[in-house]
Amino acid sequence: QVSLVETGGGLVQPGGSLKLSCVVSGDTADYHAIGWFRQAPGKEREGVSTISKTDGRAYYADSVKGRFTISRDNAKDTAYLEMNNLKPEDTAVYYCAASRSFGASLLQRRYDYWGQGTQVTVSS
Prior knowledge:
Elements: E1 2-7, E2 10-12, E3 18-26, E4 33-39, E5 46-52, E6 58-60, E7 68-73, E8 78-83, E9 92-99, E10 113-114, E11 118-122
Parallel strand pairs: 2-11
Antiparallel strand pairs: 1-3, 3-8, 4-5, 4-9, 5-6, 7-8, 9-10, 9-11
């Protein structure tokens, strides 16, 4: 069993930055990729970014390319999402998730464990 806890959310002005962290605990040998997802009010949850635990390969949704950077520290079982040039449309609850499958993917059905989420609000 794997547990995930997200931190780092908050209120930021447009153009600002935030860095989210996702700490993985439990059977940390049981996951091979981390994904970040978000859900805005009234919208479906969508994939934001994902990174492979083994080779570090990462993917991004088109809406965040060039603004968000995903990284991981395997020694700490922690993943990060650095978000720059934030826009009001980035406002959402951000979730991290762990996949038992090899390879990074933004497909939600590949993820087996989910955190509780952290709120990110971009507003002036």
